[in-house]
Design goal:
Strand order of the largest sheet: 1-2
Largest sheet: 2 strands, antiparallel
Helix content: 55-70%
Shape: elongated
Number of domains: 3
Number of helices: 18
């Protein structure tokens, strides 16, 4: 009977159910997870990448000691298990991502290198001396940007082969309206693949201005596209390995020359010599700040405007600049339109010289930059002395018996 009532009044039940559902208050959330992918309210990847890193770190901690960092297993076996157990968690669904920022790629790369150093069982000395390119080469792991390009090219072929027509239309509309769409990243990946296949003939050829032939080829469902992309990835890894090997040989070659050969006939000094800053006392420093500090402390040589500063007010334009550092910048500032600093040149012509016995009156401590840049003073900056200080000095100089006699009189 209940079933017949529901069947007879199906439309009214559906309406009541919809009203009751939409009448519930919806709680706004900043991110939600669907099919293993985290979507953010601002359409960014920062939350998803952070959660991926957390899940991967937790999974790595469970299998690191018994499997991935086990010294009884070969390095190739550990690397293969790392790609299977850990890499799939970190890069799951990477082909459907939009192009991350450079900072997000750097975060993924740094986290990946930290895990690979543990899998390769590098000592602290080897960690300091082994470059990141060598670690990725030993782990047979491409850069995150290259891995993203390969996954997106493979995902695009599956999308046009099995995906609905509505989704393909949405991707084209997104490409027309959004500057950071999936199609923009796909075009960049196709341009990268085209550069790797400059001297090779593949069908269909890649044309970034017209992808009609490529879309038709993807819809046929041929597996030649997967072999083509993976072959390009191996070619890219070989090229990167060759360049890394050449850089390493170059470094070893010049290191041996510097140790064994003589460079007296060369007029060009090496980097370590050109980066030195030498004082007239023949002491060398690696930074100009160190040389300036040495001249100030050892030779009492300060900035060119040091002899013009006696407080926090410019003696020329009478501007109160709050701190001595701002006064230094005011006198050393070189404007764009005028070639000289007017205050500095005027004080130099007057021959102003601050004596050492003048007191230094500094400005108060600033809690922020909400103060005015400068205040215009109405007259010359006075050398004010506290009257209570003079009375205290006079009291200490007067004998006690003289003060007792004055009090009785």
């Amino acid at each position: 009977m209940v079933a017949s009532c529901i069947k007879s009044s199906r439309s009214s039940c559906i309406v009541c159910l919809a009203i009751s559902i939409w009448a519930l208050p919806l709680q706004p959330i900043m991110a939600w997870k669907h099919l293993g992918t985290t979507f953010a309210a601002n359409h960014g990847l920062e939350v998803g990448i952070q959660q991926r890193i957390g899940l991967t770190q937790a999974a790595f901690g469970q299998v690191a000691r018994p499997i991935l960092c086990n010294r009884h297993l070969r390095e190739s076996t550990r690397i293969q298990l790392f790609h299977t157990l850990i890499g799939t968690k970190l890069f799951f669904g990477l082909g459907a991502w939009q192009t991350p920022t450079t900072r997000q790629y750097a975060k993924l790369r740094a986290f990946l290198l930290r895990l690979l150093r543990k899998v390769l069982r590098l000592t602290p000395d080897e960690v300091a001396s082994t470059p990141a390119v060598e670690i990725l080469r030993r782990a047979r792991q491409p850069e995150p940007r290259v891995r993203h390009a390969v996954d997106r090219l493979l995902y695009a072929q599956r999308l046009w082969e099995f995906g609905p027509a509505e989704l393909q239309h949405i991707l084209h509309r997104e490409h027309a309206l959004c500057p950071n769409s999936l199609m923009h990243g796909l075009l960049a990946d196709l341009a990268w693949l085209q550069q790797l296949e400059l001297h090779l003939s593949h069908q269909p050829p890649i044309r970034t201005d017209d992808l009609t032939d490529l879309f038709d080829y993807w819809q046929k469902g041929s597996r030649d596209w997967q072999r083509r992309v993976k072959t390009a990835l191996r070619r890219h890894l070989r090229q990167e390995g060759m360049m890394h090997q050449m850089h390493r040989l170059h470094t070893q070659f010049f290191h041996a020359l510097k140790e064994q050969a003589s460079f007296h006939d060369l007029t060009v000094a090496d980097d370590a010599t050109t980066n030195e800053f030498v004082c007239f006392c023949q002491r060398a420093f690696s930074t100009p700040q160190g040389l300036a500090a040495h001249k100030r402390l050892a030779h009492n040589i300060g900035a060119q405007e040091k002899h013009l500063i006696d407080g926090v007010t410019c003696p020329c334009c009478l501007k109160f600049l709050w701190t001595r550092q701002r006064l230094y910048q005011h006198l050393a500032y070189i404007p764009r339109k005028r070639q000289v600093t007017q205050c500095f040149q005027a004080l130099q012509r007057q021959g102003l010289q601050v004596t050492d016995d003048c007191p230094i009156i500094a400005g108060g401590t600033l809690t922020g930059l909400n103060q005015a840049e400068a205040l215009q003073a109405m007259g010359p900056f006075p050398l004010v002395k506290d009257s209570r200080e003079r009375e205290r000095v006079a009291t200490h100089k007067t004998p006690v018996w003289a003060m007792w006699g004055k009090a009785h009189h």
